[in-house]
Amino acid sequence: METPTQAAEPVADRAEPADPGAPAEQAESAEPTEQAEPTGPAGRAGTADAHGAPDLADPGFWRLPAPARAAAFAELRRLPGPLFFGDRATGKGFHALVRHADVVEASRTPAVFLSGPGVTTPAPARWVRLLFGDSMVNLDDPRHAQLRRIVSRAFTPRLLGRVEEDVRRISVALVDRVERDRPADFVSAVAAELPFQVICTMMGIPDQPRRAILDLVNRTSADIGVARSLRDRLRAPGRGLRALARMQAIVAGIGRERRRRPAEDLISALVTADVDGRRLTGRELGAFFTLLLVAGVETTRNALAHGLHLLTVHPEQRALLLSDLDGRLGGAVDEMVRHATPIIQFHRTVAVDHELGGPGGTLLRAGEKVALFYGSANRDEAVFPDPDAFDITRTPNPHLGYGGGGPHYCLGAHLARQEMTALFRELFTRLPEARSVGEPELVPSSFDHRVRSLRFTC
Length: 458
Ligand code: HEM
Hints:
alpha+beta; binds protoporphyrin IX containing FE; 47% helix
């Protein structure tokens, strides 16, 4: 499959991310360093220009065709240690963690690799975080653990059982509509709609404000990684923040109402659950809902779109899947997420000097940033035989599409699997001819593998 050819915008043109939990455009513009250091056994990080490596901090890199980018990452994985992109003397830039083992180590050592300073680039501004509340993806312990406990407590088996039914019901309704209306675009008709309806149903958002919320979500995230005019971009921060404020106000209002009259939904559970003597405040509720929408809708929609396209351009895998849908769907859905890797990278900030890979490993200095390149880790030949192949029978498949483990591991991984499985089961059972037509329309970004639209036929 042609994976996305995407481009990042220069940092000077980027807008402040509108959402504290939202992914921001990632590529940092970093000046070539004057102080090249060799990569070496002495454990010092090498710099990109010393190796003549393609510059991951250069927006132009993300405009290269997918095979060229994949080849660059393969080259980086072969080096003895991660390279630093940017100017180490000033600390501006990041170490690129491109191997599976390195991404896992950073994810599972949260005392060294902090999320608190922000996991996106640029990090959300302090006033944005104060005004709209912190989302858990940008927090460290103890606040992260506390919030995650409240949220996890609310995901009761009873609620999750209901969600599974909802996912099935919404999938059936969407395929009904596809059968009836034969829409042209898989993304807007199916892939975006399913996770959005599921999250709204799960949270207990009434039908009436849903369209307005979807519109606001689109406005909040419309400026991520999209090539647009400078005038548009200058207008973007205010527009995104206004949309965010309106969305959070709607949710806070529902929260107040549920505190008075609790129902069987996640908002009620979140505003009434009492963990360590605490429950979610209105602001935390708004931040969490925004995070669920941004983290749970865009990612799942992209995974579904890439998934349909992958099955189309690999007809032998498609035939294999259809010959045993129930037996092979779980593996296929995991392989879609590995191969497409909806989220390209998140950042961490190093808390104390640390040798990556153990004593003698690459020295990372306190205060430096690392970028966890999930897509590269998912193509690491040390872990995945024939890593570029799309193979729905791949076992084991320890991909890092949902993160490298540790406290921030994707809260919605189980739900995402449920949604993808339910949707493809319904689609291929009733419309086994469903397939994409032509190439997906991709959105330029170095943060996520986003699909704007995908024509399809059944
Ligand atoms: C295919 C779909 C999805 C992908 C590829 C994905 C990927 C990720 C990744 C890479 C992380 C960061 C992990 C880390 O920093 O260690 C993450 C975190 C998160 N995801 Fe997902 N995600 C998906 C679907 C969902 C869904 C459906 C939801 C919720 C409804 C969700 C909610 C979250 C939340 C709340 C976090 C932050 C967790 C924390 O900081 O403790 N995700 N996801």
